[in-house]
Predict the structure.
Amino acid sequence: MRIKYSDIPLFLSALLPSLASASGFDCAHINTDGYKYDLSPLKGVHEVYHVEETEQYVTNTSYVLNICNILKGSAIRGDAKCGTSKNICGFVHRNAKDGHGSSTFGFPIVGLDHLGHGSKDPEVTRLKKIDADREGLLVKLAGGEYREDFDKGKTKNAGATIEFKCDPDRSGLEGLHTTLEDPDPAKRLRRRAGNSTQGDDANAGDRSLQFKSFGQDGDSYVLKLDWRTRYACDDYQRTKGSGGSGHWGFFTWLIIIAFLLTAAYLIFGSWLNYSRYGARGWDLLPHSDIIRDIPYIFQDWLRHVINTLQGTGTGSRGGYSAV
């Protein structure tokens, strides 16, 4: 089959999600040091932002991320674009305090882009290997680029370091800003540019995902984030597997097996009675006499229980009667 040139963009848009899921970082199946982690409950497009104020400018940077898939349309905000095949993008809006001039641009931080610059190189480490008192995962991702001087176009590699910290009381979604909050994300980005740094940090303690820093680390620019979640706990998957749902699964299979064995016994016994003795009706069933007597046996047992209870209540006087 020959693909038309006009169909290439449509073909690529359908292919990119599958490429992202097939890349080196599978958020649902993380195996390291004999432990298994599933971060897929944190999937979706999320946002964290940081406001920096100088004498001349208020600079708001929104970091948009999806650790389990590419950003697709969320990587485009008006004229600011960073590439739909990316997993983490930064969008900068710089507003002059005197009201004269502003600029907005986007840049990729983490992504999969086999057709051009960069590739996603995941590095996953348990925090206990770094510090025995800490529990969670340290995930390092690459594949982006940052322009040191946006006007001159000088670029350096960019990446992200995310500390997924074990917190049994948090799902990891508490206080997150998502791209669905406002139908016009570019407008929201400009609005946040007017916020103060105090407004940015006012509810920082309530958010599971928190901005730490963005800056040069060696030859690259690195975005550092903290993400508190129960899904980063070493024993969460093991405890989850041995919880109530696991016990219920065992008993469910036990009931199913018992039912199948009983059904097989009745079917085989009925066939045997029919083929050997030509039995019909109730006589087909094995031990049919006992089965027919079950209602009467149950009635006798129930009557015996009632009489026993009544005898216990009225026999407390020891059998003596007044003369």
Q: What stands out?
A: The chain has seven helices and 14 strands. Helices lie at 8-21, 127-130, 185-192, 197-201, 236-241, 244-277, 288-314. The mean pLDDT is 78. Residues 244-311 form one domain.
